[in-house]
Each structure stands twice: as structure tokens, then as C-alpha cells.
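Human: My hope is that you can spare some time for a protein that puzzles me. I am handing you a single protein, as its sequence and its fold in C-alpha cell form. Could you go through the record with me and say what the backbone is doing? Take your time, and here it is.
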Amino acid sequence: MNPDLDLTVERIIRAPRSAVWRAWTDPDRFARWWVPAPAVCKVERLEVRPGGALVTRLSEDGEEFGPHLDAAFLVVDDLERLVFTNAIDSTWRPVNPAPIAMTAEVALADHPDGTDYRIVVRHADPAARALHEQLGFADGWGTVTKQLAGFVESEVAR
């Protein structure tokens, strides 16, 4: 991690890695936590494999959906790591996504209380990192991480 270029979110999720992994790789589960509530997510494509698509749509009212994320998976290490970028879209075309081009790495590791969950979001330069932070990185990614934890923790408690 480079503190001049990267932003991170870390959390211990009180659920096994397999439950966290399913929440990232099953479209129905993914849609339930991926955007900060009360917004609603619709998953158009979730192809969890290197080169696979990650395409979501967002709705503030639950009825009209607009573009949210059009990205591609770069690395998929089963139950351990996912890396995706929005610098290329789901059809592998180079793009300049608004407001920030980024590459995100999601790492999962065993922890005595469940899963050690860490996201590193990488940016091309300090200005892009600063803009992402200013736009609410901590609130946005922190909120969806909290929602992910709540979702998988309640799912395994059943």
C-alpha cells in the first residue's frame, strides 16, 4: 500500500470467509449490500473470473436505475482475493470513468473472530486519491463494508 496513492478499508467480519466470498460472488447477495442504503443496486453482470464483468446499476428511488459501475475483474483467487478496475469497462475497452479511475483489491483472510477483510483502492496519482477521499471514500466504502458485514453476519446467524 502506498499512502500517497491508495485508500483502504479494514474490518473484522464475524463470519467465515466462505460467507463473505459468497456475498461478493453471488449476484443476489451482492445486490443486497453493494451500494449505501437507502439506494438500491441492480446487478447486470457479475462474472467472477479474470476478465469477467462487474456491472451494476443504482437507484435512489428503487424504480429508475442509472449506471453505477462498469468494471472488469483482473484477479480472482478463490476465497482469498478479488481485484477489479473501472479503468477498463466490462467489454475491455479503456475508459475514463467519472469521477475516478481506480483499481480495487479485496483481500480475505482467516481471523479468530471470522474474516479479516481489507480493501485497498489504488489511484493513478495523488490528485485522484485526494479527489476520491474528498468525494466521500471513507463514508461510501465504509458504509458498504458495514452493510456487507451486517448481511453476512445475519446470514450465518440463522
